[in-house]
């Protein structure tokens, strides 16, 4: 009986977390944005304030949100987390770990390329925004691949790439910016769903000089 009750409580808690996530996505909140108060969340999610409080406490322990006394609760900017600096130092000391980290970053970027190419093949409009953005904006290597990760429409992929990229930068890995034309060509290939050609220019022209 007791185990059944605990399972029910866990199910309710997880549902509240899912509702919070959907609300954050619907409101298009980003790191640094303030989330609604407990009272407002309770009303919007149609759950008790104590349940909301428990869910928020769990999210804060996970480092996903932070409460500032007298200000409210905010989505945490994990890229500023001291853990990034700490692990960055570890990667510097552990050469093999640093190499593994770089390899994961490159694999994730190639997966982002594959995903957007597949999306564009099914829907010609999917890669159009990326190509237009690349043509009309100045950008760094990091900004280019951040934009690419976002456009995969895979939130988990985006978050993993952002985290790995932060650790890679903190570890001292260098990602030199290639010629602007190569990035634009890559974006044009993705717009047309040309996956293999896009991967080829990524490997031969954009990441060929990466210093691990």
Would you kindly provide a written description of the structure presented here, covering whatever features stand out?
- With 212 residues, the chain is mainly alpha-helical.
- The chain has helices spanning 2-26, 38-45, 49-61, 82-93, 95-122, 128-136, 141-151, 155-170, 180-191, 195-206, and strands at residues 65-68, 72-75.
- Helix 1 crosses helix 3, helix 4 crosses helix 5 (95-122) and helix 9 (180-191) packs antiparallel against helix 10 (195-206).
- Helices cover 69% and strands 4% of the residues.
- The model is unreliable at 1-8 (pLDDT under 50).
- A hairpin with a 3-residue loop joins strand 1 and strand 2.
Number of strand elements: 2
The first-to-last residue Cα distance is 55 Å
Given as residue ranges, the uncertain stretches (5+ residues, pLDDT < 50) are 1-8
Question: Structural class, judged by helices and strands?
Answer: mainly alpha
The number of helices is 10
Integer-rounded radius of gyration? 21 Å
Residue-averaged pLDDT: 80
Which sequence of strands runs across the widest sheet?
Answer: 1-2
What sort of overall outline do the alpha carbons produce when their principal axes are compared? elongated
SSE arrangement, N to C: HHHEEHHHHHHH
Largest sheet: 2 strands, antiparallel
- In helices, the fraction of residues equals 55-70%
Instruction: Work out the strand percent.
Output: under 5%
């Amino acid at each position: 009986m007791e185990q059944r009750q605990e399972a029910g409580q866990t199910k309710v808690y997880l549902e509240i977390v899912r509702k919070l996530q959907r609300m954050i996505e619907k409101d298009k909140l980003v790191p640094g944005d303030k989330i609604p108060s407990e009272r407002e969340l309770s009303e919007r999610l149609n759950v008790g304030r104590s349940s909301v409080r428990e869910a928020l406490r769990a999210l804060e322990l996970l480092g996903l949100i932070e409460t500032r006394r007298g200000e409210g609760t905010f989505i945490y900017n994990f890229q500023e987390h001291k853990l990034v600096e700490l692990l960055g130092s570890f990667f510097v000391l552990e050469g093999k770990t640093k190499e593994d980290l770089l390899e994961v970053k490159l694999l994730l970027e190639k997966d982002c390329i594959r995903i957007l190419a597949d999306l564009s093949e099914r829907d010609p409009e999917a890669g159009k925004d990326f190509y237009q953005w690349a043509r009309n904006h100045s950008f760094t290597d990091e900004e280019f691949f951040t934009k690419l990760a976002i456009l995969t429409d895979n939130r988990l992929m985006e978050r993993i790439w952002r985290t790995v990229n932060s650790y890679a930068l903190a570890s001292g890995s260098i990602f030199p910016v290639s010629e602007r034309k190569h990035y634009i060509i890559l974006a044009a290939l993705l717009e047309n769903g040309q996956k293999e050609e896009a991967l080829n220019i990524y490997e031969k022209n954009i990441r060929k000089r990466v210093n691990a």
